[in-house]
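Running this now, will post back.
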Amino acid sequence: MDQVEIFKALSNKSRLEILNWLKNPELHFQAEHRNDAGVCVGIIQEKSGLTQSTISEYLTILKRAGLIEATRVGQWTFYKRNEEAFAALSKLIGSEI
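Update: finished.
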């Protein structure tokens, strides 16, 4: 767990919003836009109102930090939170910081 990468990833309002949406995708995305693999990148981009390149950059940062996972299904990429990473982060904050 690279603490610096994680905290850099969390230092952006839009990235925090994406993580919040992915925490409870059933509340934020229609059923046809999500599955067990997560939420389709295009739908995340639409909801955010940001450009495709910005969303791609943000998702890459979150993925590199280990906070989300990506699954390719055909031509689509789906994203979901890595809950194990959040549990480890919570433990880190509680014990070391």
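The helical segments are 3-9, 13-23, 25-28, 41-48, 52-64, 83-95. More later if anyone needs it.
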